[in-house]
Amino acid sequence: MTSPDFRVRRRWVGPIIIIRPEGDLDLDTAATLAAQATAALRRSRLVVVDLSAVTFLDCHAVGVLVDLAQQARHRGGRLQMADLPEHAHQLFSIFDLYGVLGGRNDVATECRACLHHLATAHREALKVTA
Predict the structure, then answer these.
(1) What pLDDT, in 10s, does the model give residues 10-60?
(2) Partners of 9 in the beta sheet?
(3) CA torsion angle for 51, 93, 72, 118 (degrees, to 10)?
(4) Domains and CATH numbers, the chain
(5) How far is residue 26 from each of residues 58, 65, 108, measured CA to CA in Å?
(6) How do residues 64-86 score in pLDDT, each as one tens digit?
(7) Which of 69, 16, 66, 21 is nearest to 43 (CA)?
(8) Which residues neighbour 19 within 8 Å (Cβ) at sequence distance 6 or greater?
(9) Quick one: average pLDDT of 93-103?
């Protein structure tokens, strides 16, 4: 059951959808975030998850985020974390998740990384068709 204090906000910045969960991200709320992220990935190949308002992050939620990032990459997209609170940095460091999920940077920097990814993929696609 999702906590009444948990919510997910979503906004567009150019071709990128930024998702901002607020509250505890855990076993009870991860499915809500997963549904929001999956819907966002249907509308855009680039999604940044702003974790700055997450007050708690458990291993189950991290597993959901890893799965979502892998699904995005499988479809030629990208799902990146940004603005991790200190407790999330500890978890990301312990499990060496920065390479899989990003998260070392703020939202603007992760958005630029996503745009770079899109431009690189587009250039590669043009080489293949040329």
Answers:
(1) 999 989 999 999 999 999 999 999 999 999 999 999 999 999 999 999 999
(2) 20
(3) 90
(4) 7-129 (3.30.750.24)
(5) 5, 11, 25
(6) 999 999 999 998 889 999 999 99
(7) 16
(8) 8, 9, 10, 33, 36, 37, 40, 47, 48, 49, 50
(9) 93
